[in-house]
Prior knowledge:
This protein has one domain: Rossmann fold (3-Layer(aba) Sandwich). Helix content is about 25%, strand content about 20%. The protein has helices at about 10-20, 35-45, 80-90, and strands at about 1-5, 25, 50-55, 70-75, 105, 110-115. It has a 6-stranded mixed β-sheet with strand order 2-1-3-4-5-6, sandwiched between helices.
Amino acid sequence: MKFLTDENxxxxxxxTLRQVSFEVKDIKEEKLHGTTDKEILNLAFKENRIIITHxxxxxxxxxxxxxxxxxxxxxxxxxxPENVAQNLIKxxxxxxxxxxxxxxxxxxxxxxxxxxxxx
Length: 119
């Protein structure tokens, strides 16, 4: 799995993902600040990347026909990077990970909810 991190994902979370061998492209590092959600979705789709974000607006894809390769929406009570990285990696290294591509996946400290496209 390859990922595209939205500009609201902490650099330390990105570094931690890379340290455990995930391929991550970051909006900030690519100098794409202010890119619209639609442009981010298009870039991720074109490059076969799953978006990782804290932005709830991305959850709207389940009620549209917008194509995507997967979206991980992080909804943690504790937003500190250590908690985010630890919980995200736990999910990505579990058997749940195989269900994430092409789906909207909402991850919190207490649950993982996976939504399919509604077409």
